[in-house]
Fold this protein.
Amino acid sequence: MMLIPCPWCGPRNETEFHYGGQAGVAYPRDPQALSDAEWAQFLFFRDNPKGVFAERWMHRSGCRRWFDLRRDTATNEILGAGAHEEQERTVSV
Amino acid sequence: MTADLYGASPLAVRADALAASSSPSTVRIAEVPFRAQVTLRVDPRGAAAERIGAALGAALPGPGGVARTERVAVLGLGPDEWLLVGPEGAAQGLQDTLTAALDRAFGAVVDVSAHRTIVQVSGPKAREVLNKGCALDLHPRVFASDRCAQTDVARTSAILMRHDVVEPGFWVFVRASFARYLADWLIDAAAEYGG
């Protein structure tokens, strides 16, 4: 069981969270201009590193906020969620 | 001919079973029905949040915090979300107070009284019973009277708040449709403490 540090609720069991895949995948600036191959690249292709990976997680059973987390995919070592200030962009009011 | 209106709390059908599984010296379980519950969403850094804090008589707490006034407990559920819990029948008054203090700022005030019911688990063994299905450290040193938490209790979503009156206890806010499941689970968890 991983203990995931939610930036708002503190460390919680991984069963309280929902996984959201790779972090930092930017929406294309002009989607209309993309070829089918480029659009497929944006939709379906993600990094799959063995090692440190920046991921999206959502605290489903808690505050229900999305946040970024860096995790080592080989060891499950968690290298820290951002501080509250870094998560500001994920706060939607 | 019209039907008479009546209200039955989600755990009315379990009241006897909960009483039978309670023991004064170890753990007592009972429903706290019909509390007024109002959800508030607003930017915590804005002027509206300050106006609401002033109108309530208590500043809005951060995530996981609880602020109390004479009538109302304010639970911080997230960075911009709060749950206000008041006595039965207070929902409309709370909504009016909050809506007036919000004063057309961007936010939301919603009566969610029917969404959850409250199960009070109290007594010297209350913490042991809840920790059978909840991984949080509920020791008063960590989870004091000014703390609340949204988490999983027996695999169902719940809000936990410490509610000590004479003896240590907790309020477990659970969705109405999951209340009977949680009540049955609590009865089973409390069985070893001799109800």
Summary: Chain A touches chain B through 15 residues (CB under 8 Å). Strands of chain A lie at 3-6, 10-13, 18-22, 52-58, 66-72, 78-81. The longest helix of chain A spans residues 36-44.
